[in-house]
Amino acid sequence: MKTVVEIKNIHKHYDGQQIETHALQGVSLTINQGEFVAITGPSGCGKSTLLSIMGLMDTASEGDYKISNIDTHGLKVDQRTQIRNQHIGYVFQSFNLIDHLTVFDNVALPLEHRKTSKEEIKKRVEKVLSQVDMLHRKSYRPNQLSGGQQQRIAIARALVGSPDLILVDEPTGNLDSKNGDQVMALLEKLNSDGATIVMVTHDSRYSRCASRQIQLLDGKIVAQINSEKSLQGVA
Fold this sequence. Notes:
Elements: E1 3-15, E2 20-32, E3 36-40, H1 47-54, E4 62-67, E5 70-71, H2 77-87, E6 88-91, H3 103-113, H4 118-131, H5 147-159, E7 165-169, H6 177-192, E8 197-200, H7 204-207, E9 212-217, E10 220-226
């Protein structure tokens, strides 16, 4: 089985004016292709910091991180950006869509950065919009869509580059329970189709949808739980 994420003894500390904050303390973690992993824990436990390091948005103070067998230690910003574009899809709680672009153009952005041909972009964007049931909205702009629809577009954008890893940060945090359930059902479907997903969530109902839960407390992994993936009883 292919290893997608390999983290060894990751530490992350921030130097404040009078105090040093240890966001992560000796985290080690392996995630294999096809897994759906939920990272859980109370606010301030290091969940988002860990996801940012996995997404190459942030760097560890100590330790090693490999994504798809690529050692990320000491890479320059442009190298990190290129690896992120090629290997990682990121879904943000706040959607991070660009208001003046259409749905189609928002989803196409990762491929535009790769200088993909227009024909290939059209084919791949329409394919992922169909996957998230939003092809009929391709000419709309984000402000014409509901929160749930915007999150579906954000997921399509993360999928369009066929990444090895999809990182999802509190995907239901800005949604009501109905839209949250629909987004989670979509993530489960994508995982069953082969996507490797790591999701940060504070919602225990949704963390049970993952095949494995990793619980953080004070920057350390305190438990790992294998769970039955099911949305039964969530609605």
